[in-house]
Amino acid sequence: MKIHEDPLFTFELEREPGILRFLWTEKTAHMTDGDFTRALSLYADFAAKHRASALLVDVRNFRHQPGPEMGKWRNEVLVPRYRAAGVRRFAYVTGSDAPMPPKRSSMTAAKEPFETRYFHSLEEAEKWLAQRPCPIRSVMATYRLRPGSLGDSGVRRARSKY
């Protein structure tokens, strides 16, 4: 379902399984870094509003060349917003002519709180995003023992009581 349209991009939401699509248009060839940050900020707003756990950015029609400071801005501003929104997976659709995975750039965060992958097709990305990730759970228990409770005399005393 289309939830936002702009000359530079469109957002679509698929409530089940919680995928928020970001589709760039070819009009991005004439956009500025200000347009770019506005679009990405709005995307983060929509991710939070709709509690989308899976984000998909289709860059096949993206033509803008972001400035060198955009990667740092993304890491410092957007990544925490995606984390707060509950994002678990992030997919980029790069098209069939892009190398897989693309070389790391200033636009790719070194350490993100969600899994990020790159795909040649929309179908591949959506299939991966629709899979429910296995939650990793860990439990830590702390036991405090009384001094001497593991010694022979402590064991004998415990047995004699029961």
What does this structure look like?
- With 162 residues, the protein is an alpha/beta fold.
- It has one domain (2-161): STAS domain (Transcription Regulator spoIIAA).
- It is 33% helix and 19% strand.
- A 6-stranded mixed β-sheet has the order 1-2-3-4-5-6, sandwiched between helices.
- Helix 1 (33-50) links the parallel strand 3 (19-24) and strand 4 (54-58).
- It is globular.
- Residues 103-109 and 134-141 have low confidence and may be disordered.
Which keywords apply here?
162 residues; alpha/beta; Transcription Regulator spoIIAA; six-stranded mixed β-sheet; 33% helix; 19% strand; globular
Task: Record the SSE blueprint.
Blueprint: E1 2-5, E2 9-14, E3 19-24, H1 33-50, E4 54-58, H2 70-85, E5 89-93, E6 115-119, H3 122-130, H4 152-161
Parallel strand pairs: 3-4, 4-5, 5-6
Antiparallel strand pairs: 1-2, 2-3
Helix pairs in contact: 1-2
Question: Helical region count?
Answer: 4
Q: Roughly how many Å apart are the termini? A: 67 Å
Helix content, binned percent? 25-40%
Write the CATH architecture name: 2-Layer Sandwich
The total domain count is 1
CATH superfamily: STAS domain
Q: Biggest sheet, strands in spatial order?
A: 1-2-3-4-5-6
H-E string:
EEEHEHEEHH
Calculate Rg over CA atoms: 24 Å
How would you sum up the major sheet? 6 strands, mixed
The name of the CATH topology is Transcription Regulator spoIIAA
Using DSSP, what is the number of strands? 6
Q: In terms of per-residue confidence, which ranges show pLDDT below 50 for 5 or more consecutive residues?
A: 103-109, 134-141
Residue-averaged pLDDT:
83
Outline, from the CA principal axes? globular
Please state roughly what percent of the residues sit in beta strands, choosing from under 5%, 5-15%, 15-25%, 25-35%, 35-45% or over 45%: 15-25%
Structural class: alpha/beta
CATH class: Alpha Beta
